[in-house]
Specification:
The complex is a heterodimer of chains A (116) and B (113).
Chain A (H helix, E strand, L loop, with lengths): L3 E4 L2 E4 L5 E7 L5 E7 L6 E7 L2 E4 L7 E4 L5 E6 L8 E8 L11 E2 L3 E5 L1
Parallel strand pairs in A: 2-11
Antiparallel strand pairs in A: 1-3, 3-8, 4-5, 4-9, 5-6, 7-8, 9-10, 9-11
Chain B lengths: L4 E3 L2 E5 L4 E6 L7 E7 L6 E6 L5 E4 L2 E6 L4 E6 L8 E8 L7 E3 L3 E6 L1
Parallel strand pairs in B: 2-11
Antiparallel strand pairs in B: 1-3, 3-8, 4-5, 4-9, 6-7, 7-8, 9-10, 9-11
Classes of the chains: A mainly beta (116), B mainly beta (113).
Chain lengths: 116, 113
């Protein structure tokens, strides 16, 4: 059974129209991550939540926001999608974020976002 | 900025062939290296997390080695099968106050029957 679930698998939105991507987890992990992967590029971390503590990457555009209403759910909001935001968006979790951790991350299947 | 390089970008092998590919990373401030397998239309799946120089891990026909002093890891697949076809991603954790995993672009493996 999938433990990190992303919805929808495919999302099409119009240029400038806000869109929300969803991620849920049944692992009860403290940390949830959002990555953006463009074609033939490395997955790039946008931000992560450690419990309720939000950690934005310095180069993540302001257009990208996130919410984590509870342990299980995390949302990625794109306020005004541009053509350059078309990508695969991956959600991942890990039990903890400690420096001493050697835990793997657990990924969802991703949401492929297209912009018209 | 941590730079993680993977080579080759892609390769095609025949069923039964053994193959290997490389992940290179800066040897300074190394903390951990992760390998993931990402099959089309599925989620990336963790293969190995390696932290110690000289570490060698094995999972079925897949194994990995780690050299932290020279900054590389090899992933080996023995007797490749069509179901091994996937993108293999490595990612590096530099520890300290930076909790981030930095990924390479991946190696796309295609195993032809």
């Amino acid at each position: 059974d999938a433990m990190v679930i992303q919805n929808p698998r495919y999302q099409v939105t119009q240029f400038g129209k806000p869109v929300t991507l969803s991620c849920s987890q049944t692992l009860n992990h403290n940390v949830m991550y959002w990555y953006q992967q463009k074609s033939s590029q490395a997955p790039k971390l946008l931000f992560h939540y450690y419990d309720k503590d939000f950690n934005n990457e310095a180069d993540t555009p302001d257009n990208f926001q996130s919410r984590r209403p509870n342990t299980s759910f995390c949302f990625l909001d794109i306020r005004s999608p541009g053509l350059g935001d078309a990508a695969m968006y991956l959600c991942a979790t890990s039990r903890d974020r400690t420096v001493g951790s050697n835990q793997p991350q657990h990924f969802g299947d991703g949401t492929r976002l297209s912009i018209l | 900025i941590l730079n993680v390089e993977q080579s080759p970008q892609s390769l095609h092998v025949q069923e039964g062939d053994s193959t290997n590919f490389t992940c290179s990373f800066p040897s300074s401030n190394f903390y951990a290296l992760h390998w993931y397998r990402w099959e089309t239309a599925k989620s990336p799946e963790a293969l190995f997390v390696m932290t110690l120089n000289g570490d060698e891990k094995k999972k079925g026909r897949i194994s990995a080695t780690l050299n932290t002093k020279e900054g590389y890891s090899y992933l080996y697949i023995k007797g490749s099968q069509p179901e091994d076809s996937a993108t293999y991603l490595c990612a590096c954790h530099s520890g300290g106050s930076n909790y981030k995993l930095t990924f390479g672009k991946g190696t796309l493996l295609t195993v032809n029957p």
